[in-house]
Design a protein that fits this description.
Distance between the termini of chain A: 54 Å
Order of helices and strands of chain B: HHHH
Number of domains of chain A: 2
Shape of chain B: globular
Number of domains of chain B: 1
Oligomer: heterodimer
Radius of gyration of chain A: 19 Å
Strand content of chain B: under 5%
CATH class of chain B: Mainly Alpha
Largest sheet of chain B: none
CATH topology of chain B: Cytochrome Bc1 Complex, Chain D, domain 2
Distance between the termini of chain B: 52 Å
Number of helices of chain A: 9
Strand content of chain A: under 5%
CATH class of the largest domain in chain A: Mainly Alpha
CATH topology of the largest domain in chain A: Cytochrome Bc1 Complex, Chain D, domain 2
Structural class of chain B: mainly alpha
Largest interface: A-B, 33 and 28 residues
Helix content of chain A: 40-55%
CATH architecture of the largest domain in chain A: Orthogonal Bundle
Structural class of chain A: mainly alpha
Order of helices and strands of chain A: HHHEEHHEEHHHH
CATH architecture of chain B: Orthogonal Bundle
Largest sheet of chain A: 2 strands, antiparallel
Helix content of chain B: 55-70%
Number of helices of chain B: 4
Chain lengths: ~230, ~130
């Protein structure tokens, strides 16, 4: 009996700071993040939602991001989407092709280390609907970067909208050279497989890729941060 | 300018003004007809085909194959409607074109794709085939 009480008290002492941190993070989410991000699943996620939102939905952030990356990024937010969210609202005709209209983009809120840790904790608790991410789908098999790059750029056309290294590739999608550091493997796999499941009406097509393609592209993106993002 | 010339000038100007209003009325009606397809185009197609529908989108700087210029009447007139529909639904490879044009069949409904083909004919001003 005494042992049980001791164990319960010990757990309480250890767990308490974490709970307090998440609570503080939830308050910050409410006061600073919710005007641009959906932290609960929108009831009607129509095309209007894509046009109206100012940042990506965060109601499944805990199934998407790596916590260590969140803590780091929230203190020093470097733009992930070169043309912002939503790209169509931040482009203008240029001399040769359309270009990003930088004057319409606003920098992301920067947090202190303590607040970044608290917000990351709160975000990791937002895991989204059950089954959204296919847990364990990525088999973590070794992927050749040469083959990965060939599929990413030439055979499946991902490079049309995403940058696999800084300065090269498309600008309407998020850059992926920090994707491995930023994103969970099973999320990458699941999102490539069916982007519309996460983001109904998103401007990324659902390509009906075969299993080897999904494994290969996920493995490639995971390695990008280590090999080319630094 | 004598009185007769003044009257003639007045009629010419009145006629021109009336034509402008008539044209503006027609343009508005036409724009309404294509509003939904134009909105879909703005969401999905502009990233590669450009704000001006001229194939000079945001993503084209490093593309090995440049996207179709939808404002080009000659180039667009050579493509039948069913090929346009297939390219949008099943992607560029399905019509022996670039893989960089993805399949939108899982995102757009058949009806939306049909409306898009009609809208593309409006953009290119090259009529249905």
């Amino acid at each position: 009996m005494k042992l049980h009480i001791f164990a319960a008290l010990s757990f309480g002492l250890i767990a308490a700071p974490s709970v307090a941190l998440a609570s503080n993070g939830a308050d910050i989410l409410k006061s600073q993040c919710m005007s641009c991000h959906a932290t609960v699943k929108p009831e009607k996620a129509g095309l209007d939602h894509i046009w109206e939102r100012k940042g990506p939905d965060l109601y499944y952030a805990g199934s998407k991001y790596n916590k260590s990356w969140l803590v780091k990024w929230l203190q020093d937010p470097i733009r992930i989407r070169p043309a912002g969210e939503f790209y169509r609202k931040h482009v203008k005709p240029g001399d040769k092709e359309d270009v990003v209209d930088e004057s319409t983009l606003t920098p992301h809120v920067k947090l202190s280390k303590t607040d970044a840790e608290a917000v990351a904790e709160a975000l990791m608790a937002l895991t989204g609907p059950v089954g959204l991410v296919n847990k364990g789908a990525f088999k973590n098999e070794k992927v050749s970067m040469t083959m990965g790059a060939m599929f990413f750029n030439k055979l499946r056309g991902c490079g049309a909208c995403h940058m696999a290294k800084p300065g090269t590739g498309g600008l309407s999608g998020p850059e992926l050279y920090t994707g491995g550091e930023r994103l969970q493997a099973d999320y990458i796999y699941s999102y490539i497989k069916d982007p519309q499941k996460f983001d109904p009406h998103i401007w990324m097509p659902t390509l009906n890729l075969a299993e080897p393609d999904l494994q290969r592209l996920t493995g490639y993106i995971l390695q990008l941060s280590a090999s080319e993002g630094k | 300018m004598n009185t007769r010339q003044r009257v003639s000038a007045f009629f010419v100007m009145s006629l021109a003004s009336a034509s402008c209003f008539l044209y503006a009325g027609k343009a508005t009606a036409a724009d309404d007809q294509y509003a939904q397809a134009a909105h879909v185009y703005d969401t999905y197609c502009v990233q590669c085909h450009g704000i001006n529908r001229d194939g000079k989108g945001l993503n084209t700087k490093d593309m090995s194959v440049q996207p179709r210029d939808h404002s080009d009447p000659k180039g667009m007139a050579d493509i039948p409607d069913d090929e346009l529909h297939k390219a949008i639904k099943e992607g560029g490879l399905s019509v022996n074109k670039s893989v960089l044009m993805p399949a939108w069949g899982n995102v757009l409904t058949d009806e939306e794709i049909k409306e898009m083909v009609v809208y593309l004919r409006h953009v290119c001003q090259c009529g249905p085939k």
